[in-house]
Specification:
The protein is mostly beta strands. Helix content is 0%, strand content 31%. The strands form three sheets. The protein has a three-stranded antiparallel β-sheet, with no helix packed on it. A three-stranded antiparallel β-sheet has the order 5-4-8, with no helix packed on it.
Length: 97
């Protein structure tokens, strides 16, 4: 029986982060060290391919409560929780997580 081997590029500093080859964003989680303003914490990073989809029209929206870290600009953007219960912006139907 053959094993399927999947090759993934990992982040040079954060071993639990992998590069998505479709959207070129990091996916996984990493430990953010404490600063003067923030306590240390684990951050969930989601690539652009992971998104909530509308049940009716298939429109996609980023998953609330995660962060997006793109390879091209090397900055982290947080996706807030408050749009979680909002309907689809195209058809008004329910968004599925």
């Amino acid at each position: 029986m053959k094993k399927k081997v999947e090759v993934r590029l990992s982040h040079p500093e954060h071993t639990n982060m992998y590069l998505c080859e479709k959207c070129f964003c990091w996916d996984g989680e990493f430990y953010k060290k404490s600063t003067e303003l923030h306590e240390p914490m684990w951050l969930a990073i989601s690539c652009l391919c992971n998104s909530a989809e509308c049940n009716k029209c298939g429109n996609k929206r980023k998953i609330p409560g995660t962060s997006i870290w793109a390879l091209y600009d090397d900055s982290i953007a947080y996706v807030p929780y408050f749009p979680e219960r909002l309907p689809c912006s195209k058809c008004g139907d329910k968004m599925e997580n």
